[in-house]
Every structure is written in structure tokens, then in C-alpha cells.
Amino acid sequence: MPPAWHGVLAGKLAAQVDELHRLCERLVGAGPAAAEAADEARARGGPERLGMLRAALASCQARAGVGGAGEPAAGIAGAVAGELRNALSRLAFQERALLALRDIAGLSHEEIGALLGLDAAGTALALGRARVSLRAALRGEPPEGGRCGDRERALSAIERRCDGVQLDGPEDDWLLEHLAACAECARAHAAVLEAAACHGAWSAAA
Ligand SMILES: [Zn+2]
């Protein structure tokens, strides 16, 4: 193997180890529990990235609630990170896992579904719900209840659109018409976009 390839492979491995550690921190909090879960996932998950992420989910679920908050960073970025960590700690494990797999690991809805045992449509809906829950937790409000009979269809379409998944023409038209007519789904749309921007930027920067 030419020496340049060693550098490329070492860089790729370092990026995977970093991703795994950040994912575990998001799921169990910063501290020894996250490092242990990441090490265990590397040992058990096999060489493939999805296998390692699957093992990380199992290791973290076994340790959920064990970790600490970690050292707060200074300034506005630190305050935002603190609020996000606090809000995430109020979500269910699966909701934190959905958000971390999408925004830290950048997995597609199909890949996330394969790890969590959901189909792609179910993953989009669950992710949309997780983002609505995150925004509600950030604001200290209860998530809005579903009075709209089309809320699941709308939330799934909103989440797919937000994640850059191309909706087919009729579904896209339906969503735009529905959002114009349904105040509840229009608020859910705003909540998903705000949570995605906030959690996505923090996850990319962390
Ligand atoms: Zn609606």
C-alpha cells in the first residue's frame, strides 16, 4: 500500500472514532460513560460504519442516564449548547438517537430506519416528532397536541422536505396547500425548521 493511502485511511478512521464518540456523548452525556460506550461499539460493531453505529446505540441504551453534562463552553455558543443539552435530556432515548443519527452521522432516513427498525416513512414521522419535541423542550412548553386529522401525513412530509428528500409532485402540492390552511401544521413546520437549524448547526460545530 503506498504511504499516501496510510494517511487517508488513518484520517478516515480518526473521523469515524470522533463521530462515534460525539454520538455517544449526545446519547449518554459527556464523561466516562460516553467513552466506554464508544470503545465498546468499536470493539463489538465490526469494521462497517453502520455496524459500529448500531453497536453504539445498544451500548448507549444500556448506559442511558449515566453521563454528566460535561464542561460548559464559554460565551454564547456555550450557553446555546447548554440549553440544547438540557432540552435533549428531557427527550426519550429514541428521539435523541434519531436526531443524533441524522444531524451528527448524516444518515439517510432509510439508514436510520434500518438501525432503529422503522421504515423510511416511519423514520421521517418519528424525526419530525422528535424535532417538534426538541423545540417544545427548548421553549419549556408542552408539545402541541394533534387536533389536525392530517398531522402525521403533514409532519412526515415536512421532515422529508426539511432533510432535502424530494417529495413527489402531488404530495408537495398537498403539503403547501395544507400548510396554508392549517394553523397547527404551519406551527409544526416552523418548529421543525427551527429545531433542525438549531440542532443541525450545533451538531456540525461540536
Ligand atoms: Zn394540519
Model description:
The chain is mainly α and 206 residues long. The chain folds into 2 domains: 1-71, no CATH class; 72-206, no CATH class. It is built from 10 helices and no strands. Helix 7 crosses helix 8, helix 8 packs parallel to helix 10 and helix 9 packs across helix 10. The two termini are 34 Å apart. The model has no long low-confidence stretch (mean pLDDT 88). The chain binds zinc ion. Zinc ion binds at residues 148, 150-151, 154, 178, 182, 184-185.
Unreliable runs: none
Structural class: mainly alpha
Percent helix among the residues?
over 70%
Counting DSSP E segments of at least 2 residues, the number of strands comes to: 0
Q: What order do the SSEs take from the amino end to the carboxyl end, as H and E? A: HHHHHHHHHH
Radius of gyration: 18 Å
Index terms:
mainly alpha, 0% strand, 206 residues, 2 domains
Give the topology, please.
Elements (H helix, E strand, L loop, with lengths): L2 H26 L3 H13 L4 H15 L11 H15 L3 H11 L5 H8 L3 H20 L11 H12 L6 H13 L1 H23 L1
Helix pairs in contact: 1-2, 1-3, 2-3, 4-7, 5-7, 6-7, 7-8, 7-10, 8-10, 9-10
The structure holds zinc ion.
